[in-house]
Structure formats: structure tokens, C-alpha cells
Amino acid sequence: MWGSMFRWLDPYAKPETLYHLCGRLLPYLMGLALFTLLLGNIWGLAFSPADYQQGDSYRIIYIHVPSAIWSMGAYSSMAIAAFIGLVWQIRVAQWAVLAIAPIGAVYTAIALITGAAWGKPMWGTWWVWDARLTSELVLLFLYLGVIALAGAFSEAARGIKVASLLAIVGVVNLPIIHFSVEWWNTLHQGATITKFAKPSIDPSMLWPLLISLLGFALLLAALTCLRLRSQILMFEQHRPWVRQLVDSMAASHQKEQN
Amino acid sequence: MVMWSSLIKRELQLLGRQKADWLNPLVFFLLVLSLFPLGIGPEPGMLKQIAPGLVWIAALLSVLLSAERLFKDDYRYGVIEQLVAGRQGLFSYVTAKICCHWLSTGVPLILVSPLIAVLLGLDWQSWQVLVVTLILGTPVLSLLSVLGAALTMAADKGGILQALIILPLYIPLLIFASGAMEAAATALPYTGQLAVLLAFLLFALALVPLAVRQALRMNVG
What we know:
Structural class of chain A: mainly alpha
Shape of chain B: elongated
Distance between the termini of chain B: 27 Å
Largest interface: A-B, 27 and 23 residues
Order of helices and strands of chain A: HHHHHHHHH
Number of helices of chain B: 10
Structural class of chain B: mainly alpha
Strand content of chain B: under 5%
Oligomer: heterodimer
Number of helices of chain A: 9
Strand content of chain A: under 5%
Largest sheet of chain A: none
Radius of gyration of chain B: 18 Å
Shape of chain A: globular
Number of strands of chain B: 0
């Protein structure tokens, strides 16, 4: 099974193939992401019923929960890419680490900011030193550390490798974030939908949330494709295929102008 | 094993000759601790309450400070390059480095802890818990800061970057160590926090040396 999977994946380790694959996927992913995000958020923010306890302010869940879940999802995918990049020495996987890191950092920032905005009316404070809030903040610092470390070396390829190692080390924080609300019984509420039992949320509120979740995932994928494409071009700029690509683009651009 | 003991001997010899490497962090630790009463106010009740956090933050900073130059000289003189090229002994080098780093920064902190207890007005019981958390926690601090030093060894902007990437990893340690001391201060059971600290230590002991070795190899390229 592993053999056939690797044979199937192998061509995509070639930067040129991956560049074109990302280019083909990008419009579909971006289109779907925008559609699901608009659908989920408009449904959630305007049409789903208000909460019996929290009133209308619970509606921030449609941004807060998806961004928080995918801030961890992005970190896991980044760490998996880092692992593949280091173990099998696949360069495109290492570039993917750098492609994902800033997106994950922004997702984490969104989760923290919307969480603060939600905390103000519900808990009466913007910030508490609750276990989950703190560990999410640590996640943001880890993302920033990976980005900073990758940029600290004069030789870019070495910086990415070292940053990949840091990304793998930082994985220890993920279970801490996930289980923080169970281990420490603090202010942040428990999971609403990510448990195996029946979700503790009404279907009329659950559906827009699930759609927003899908939307944030698709946006993550689309932005990763976009950033990975530019990473590939940056690192392969001296290769003939990139030169050819640039020449053909310049030629078609000129034709348009004439 | 022969290699390991000779590497340990070498490290200790270097530390003996460059006393600033381990004396400065210790002085820094005591200085930071004495800044807090000046900044916050010298009331004994308040000091006793915030002591757990103070001691641990000062310990974090001083260990971090001492790790900054850990690999710089060996890197500059080509020692690490030779060890990587030699395909042998790099792991012994890493473990020797970690041991000596703990001996030169963690152990002095434990030894001056009675002094800290006097300065911050801790009672006998709190001091005991402080020592146990330091014994369990400082090896983890050493392991992680050696990792940070190894990751940033060949980086152009080392120093502050190392703090940026390693401090987030210190946070769980800080939470549980000061949690144990706070629980002890209010006469609650604290063995749970100590068990978690021990778990951190064993986990880090098993995996961090491997990561350090990998980081050194990458930095040499």
C-alpha cells in the first residue's frame, strides 16, 4: 500500500509539476472557499436563531471556532510537511512549511482576537489567563518563531530545514491546546462539536458552523496553493523551466498589448 | 563511553577556565530576583505570594542567557564540523554538552536556593518544594535551551531569536512549577504537578538530544 501511494505521490515532489497542479487547483479551491465562507457566515450571522443564554453575541462562533480549529489544523499540516521534508529530503515539502506558517499565524491571531471580542460580553473581560487562551497564544509565538528562524539564515535552504525541525518540536503544544479545557477546568467552555458524542448544539446553529468550518479549510488550502506557487518560483528562479515560463508569460503579455 | 567521559572532561575544563560563562548567569539570576522587591514593593506577604513565579521567571531568563554562546566557539573553531564529518561521537558530544550545561547553570541555582528563600521570606516547606521543582525543572530548561542554541547556531541573528523560539516551549514548565509551589503555599496536595514535571523531564530527556543532534547537522550543512 505504501509503495503504491509513494509511486502516486512521487511526481508531485517535482517542483514544476507541483507548481502547475497548484495553479490548476487554485481557482476551484478559492471559488469554493469564497462560496462556502459567504454561505456559512451569512447564514450563521443573519439567519440562524439567537442563543437562549448568550443572545446574538454567540454568533462570533462562526468565525472563532473555525479559525481556532484550523489554526491547529494548519500547524499539524505544517508539521507533517516538515517531517516529510526532513525525513525524505523533499524540498517542496520544506517550502510548504514556509507557505503554511504565515497563514496559520493569521488564523491563530483571528481566533485570539475574536475570542477576546467574545470574552468581553460573556466573561466581562477581554483576556483571562485561562489554559486554552494561553496555549493558543503559545501557538501564535511558535508560528512566529518558525517564520523568524527560517528568515535568520543567510542561506535560505538551511533556514527552512532548521525551521522545519522547530515546527516538529512545537507539535507538543497541540495536545496541550486540545485537551486544556478538559485537563484544567477553567473559564473557556468545552468542545461543542469536536467530540464523538452527540453535539451540544442545535442543528439550526450547527449547519452554518460546519459550512464555515469547511470554508476556512478550503481557504487554508487555497492560500497554501497560492503561497506555495510563489515559494516554488522563488526557490527555482534560476531553473530553465521558470525562465521559460516567465518568457512565455512575457510574450503572451506583449501579444495582448499589441 | 570513553568518548563521553573525555568530552565531559573537556567541557568542565572549558567551564573552569571561562568562569564568566556560568558565574554571570548566576549573578544575573540573583540581580533579577532583587529587582522585583525594589520594583513591586518589599512587603513580605506580597513577596511570599509572588515568589514562585519570580524564582521561575528569573531561572528561565538566566538559563536562556547562559545558553546563547553555548555552541558559538565550537562552531567557529570547526569542532562541530569535525564531529559531524566524523559520523561518530556527535551524540556523545550533545549529551555531554547538555550535562555540563545543567551542571553549570541548573545546579548553582539549586545551591543558592536557600539564599533565595531567605530573600523572599519563604518558609521551610515552600523552600523544599522550590528545591524539588528546581531539581525536576532545570534539566528541562537546560535541554530546551541547548536545543535553541543548536537551532540558531549558524543563524546571522542568534541571541534574541533563540529567546523567541525557546521561551514559548518553557511556558508549560513555568505553569506547572509555579503551580506546585502555589499549591504547597496554600497547603494543598502538589504531587500531581511534580509528576507532570517529571513526565516533562523524561519526555525531553528521551527526545531533545536527538533533535539537538539533527539541528547541529543541519546547521553545519
